[in-house]
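Changelog-adjacent note: as of this version, every example in the card shows the full chain rather than a window. The one below runs 84 residues end to end.
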Amino acid sequence: MTLANFCGVTAAQLGVTGATDVDRGAASAVYFSLYYGVGSLGAYLPGLAWERYGWGGVAVTGFGALAVAGVVLLSAHALNGRWP
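Full-length structure tokens:
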């Protein structure tokens, strides 16, 4: 899991800068802002779910995050006609 996480993050960082020839700094800034913003929510929301609902709430929060990622992936595929 850790290896996949660090490989995925590295690939995303390289992909963001390689996706455009213009204003790579802005693309990188948007990526890092989203990365750290969503990462902070990923640390905070499961804690709230645990306080209120216990481990079941944490599991639902995790599966909800996977569902959101799946919707984003399928939407990107529908818009581009190819897998990102």
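Structural remarks: Residues 2-80 form one domain.
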